[in-house]
Design goal:
There is one protein chain. The protein has 495 residues and is mostly helical. Among the domains are: 3-54; 439-495, no CATH class. Helices cover 73% and strands 0% of the residues. Helix 16 (278-291) crosses helix 17 (294-311), helix 23 (401-414) runs antiparallel to helix 24 and helix 24 (420-432) runs parallel beside helix 26. The chain is elongated, with a radius of gyration of 37 Å. The protein starts with a helix and ends in a 12-residue tail after the last helix. This is Pentatricopeptide repeat-containing protein-like. PPR repeats lie at residues 207-241. GO terms for molecular function: mRNA binding. InterPro entries: PPR5-like, PPR_rpt, TPR-like_helical_dom_sf.
Length: 495
C-alpha cells in the first residue's frame, strides 16, 4: 500500500465512519488523484444514512411509547397485584434490561405519577426481582423515595435512602427526594438536618432545588425567620433563584399572613428576573383574597380569569369568601357571578354556610332560605352557634316568626346545633304579635329537647305578660323565678 494510502487509511479509522465503510474504501478504492471525490461520496452516503435514521423515532420516544404501553397494561390490573407482577415479568423485564441504566423504570414510574400506590408496587417489584441482575441506579432510588413521600410513608422513604447510601449511591437528587418527603409530611426540622448533612458531603453540593425544598418546608410551618435565612444563604452562595424559589417564599408569607412581605417579593420578581409566571399570579390572587385587598384581587383575577374559570375552582371559592367578608356594596352580585362558575359536583357545605350568613346579614330572606334548603337537601348541617344566631337575627328583623318556626323544626330534625336563642327569639316574636298561646308552647318545645328555662326565658315571659296586663300569669312567672333563685325581675320595657 502506498504511503499516502496508509495515511488515508489511518485517518479513516480515527473518524466516526462505520467499519463497513472503511473496509469498502480500503479494499476497493486505491489511492489516486480522485480519492478526494471517493471520500466525499462515502461521507455523503453516511450522512444520508444518518438522515434516514433521524426520521425514525428517537430512543426517548421509543422508551416513552413502550413505557406507556406497559403503564396501560398495569392499569388494567390495578386491583390485582399478581396480575401486575405477571405483566412486569412478561413485558417489563425485556424493556428494563434493554435500558440497564434504569431509565425505563424511571420513565414508567413517572407515567404512574397519578397512581402512587401502583407506582410503589412496580418499584418494589423492581427492587426485589431485578436488582441481582441489573443493580438499581440512584435515579430509581430517588423515584422510590419520592413515591413513598407522596404516600406519606416516611419510614419507607428513609429505608430506601439508607439502602441507596449503603450502595454508595449518594447524590444531591437523592437528598432532595428525602428532603421533599420530610417537607411534604411537615417534618421541617428533619428536612433542615438532612440539608446540613448534605452540605458536609464533599461529593454533593446543594442545588437551587435543595434550597427551594427547604424554604417550602419552613413556609408550611410559618417559620419565616428560617425562610429568610435560607434566602440569604442562596445569595451568599451566588446561587441563582428560580421561579420556584419565589413561589415557595410567597406561599410561606401567605401562610403566615405576612401580606407586605408577599407583595414585596412579587414586586422584586416584576422588576427583576425571573418574571412572575402563572403559578405566581395564582398565588397572589389567593393572597390578595385572604388579605381582603379586593381591588388587587380583582386586577389579578383579570390576568388569569380564563385559567381560573376552567381549572382553579378552589380559587373561585376563596374569592367568594373574600367578598363575603367585605363591605363591598355589590358583594352579593359579585358572589353570585362567581357561584355560576362552580359546577354542581364542586359543592362544599362550608361554602353553603357562608352564603347563608351573607344573605342573612343582607336580609335577603328568600335567598337565605334557598341556601338553607340546599343545605338540608345535601345533608349538610351547621354546628356553630354564631351561624344560627345570624339566621335568627334575619328572621327577627323581617318579623318572620312563622318562617322561623319552620326553620327551627327542620334544623332540629336535620341535627343542626339548636341553641337556646332560637327558642327565645320565637317567644319574643310571638309575644310581640300577642300570640301568647303559641309563645307558651315554645316552653314545651324546649322541654322536649331537654332545654330548661333560664333566667332570660322567664324575663321574656315576664315582659310579655306585663305588657299585655296578664296579671295572674305574671304572678306565676314571678313565683317560678323565686323558686329557681333568680329573684324578682326589675321593671323593663319589652324588646
Amino acid at each position: 500500500m502506498a504511503h499516502g494510502s496508509l495515511k488515508t487509511h489511518k485517518a479513516i479509522r480515527k473518524s466516526s465512519i462505520p467499519a463497513r465503510f472503511v473496509r469498502l474504501y480500503v479494499t476497493q478504492t486505491p489511492y489516486s488523484s480522485s480519492s478526494q471525490t471517493v471520500w466525499s461520496s462515502i461521507i455523503s452516503l453516511f450522512l444520508h444514512k444518518c438522515d434516514a435514521r433521524s426520521a425514525e423515532p428517537s430512543v426517548d420516544e421509543y422508551l416513552r411509547e413502550k413505557a406507556s404501553e406497559l403503564r396501560e397494561e398495569i392499569l388494567s390490573h390495578k386491583d390485582d397485584v399478581e396480575g401486575i407482577e405477571d405483566v412486569l415479568k412478561e413485558k417489563g423485564v425485556s424493556l428494563f434490561r434493554r435500558y440497564s441504566d434504569g431509565s425505563a423504570v424511571v420513565e414508567l414510574l413517572s407515567q404512574l405519577k397519578s397512581f402512587p400506590v401502583l407506582a410503589l408496587e412496580v418499584f418494589e417489584w423492581r427492587r426485589k426481582q431485578l436488582d441481582y441482575a441489573s443493580p438499581m441506579t440512584v435515579e430509581e432510588y430517588t423515584k422510590g423515595v419520592v413515591i413513598a413521600g407522596r404516600l406519606k410513608n416516611v419510614d419507607l422513604a428513609v429505608e430506601l435512602f439508607n439502602e441507596a447510601s449503603n450502595k454508595q449511591l449518594k447524590s444531591t437528587s437523592l437528598y432532595n427526594a428525602l428532603m421533599s418527603t420530610y417537607s411534604y409530611n411537615g417534618l421541617a426540622m428533619k428536612c433542615q438536618s438532612l440539608f446540613q448533612e448534605l452540605k458536609s458531603i464533599s461529593t454533593c453540593t446543594p442545588s437551587i432545588v435543595t434550597y427551594n425544598i427547604l424554604i417550602s418546608a419552613f413556609g408550611r410551618l410559618m417559620l419565616v425567620d428560617h425562610m429568610d435565612a435560607t434566602l440569604r444563604e442562596i445569595r451568599d452562595q451566588n446561587v441563582r433563584p428560580t421561579v420556584h424559589t419565589y413561589k415557595a417564599l410567597i406561599a410561606g408569607y401567605i401562610t403566615a399572613w405576612m401580606w407586605d412581605e408577599m407583595e414585596k417579593t412579587y414586586l422584586i420578581m416584576k422588576e427583576g428576573s425571573p418574571k412572575p409566571n402563572l403559578d405566581i399570579h395564582l398565588l397572589m390572587l389567593r393572597g390578595y383574597a385572604n388579605s381582603g385587598k379586593l381591588e388587587q384581587m380583582e386586577q389579578m383575577y383579570e390576568m388569569v380569569r380564563n385559567h381560573v374559570t376552567h381549572k382553579e375552582i378552589p380559587l373561585i371559592r376563596v374569592m367568594i369568601c373574600a367578598y363575603c367578608r367585605s363591605t363591598d356594596v355589590a358583594r352579593v352580585d359579585k358572589v353570585e357571578g362567581l357561584l355560576r362558575l362552580i359546577p354542581d359536583d364542586e359543592y362544599r357545605p362550608w361554602l353553603n354556610v357562608i352564603l347563608i350568613c351573607l344573605y342573612a346579614k343582607q336580609d335577603l330572606l328568600e335567598r337565605m332560605e334557598n341556601s338553607i334548603s340546599e343545605a338540608f337537601e345535601r345533608n349538610a348541617y351547621v354546628t356553630t352557634v354564631s351561624t344560627m344566631r345570624c339566621i335568627i337575627s334575619s328572621y327577627f328583623r323581617q318579623n318572620a316568626v312563622d318562617k322561623l318556626a319552620v326553620f327551627l323544626s327542620r334544623a332540629q330534625h336535620a341535627g343542626w346545633n339548636i341553641c337556646r336563642s332560637l327558642y327565645h327569639c320565637k317567644m319574643v316574636m310571638y309575644g310581640s304579635q300577642m300570640r301568647l298561646s303559641e309563645m307558651e308552647k315554645v316552653i314545651d318545645e324546649m322541654d322536649q329537647v331537654n332545654m330548661h328555662c333560664s333566667k332570660k326565658t322567664f324575663w321574656i315571659l315576664y315582659n310579655v305578660y306585663q305588657k299585655y296586663g296578664q296579671k295572674s300569669k305574671l304572678e306565676q312567672v314571678v313565683g317560678q323565678m323565686f323558686k329557681h333563685g333568680y329573684g324578682a325581675p326589675l321593671p323593663s320595657n319589652f324588646v
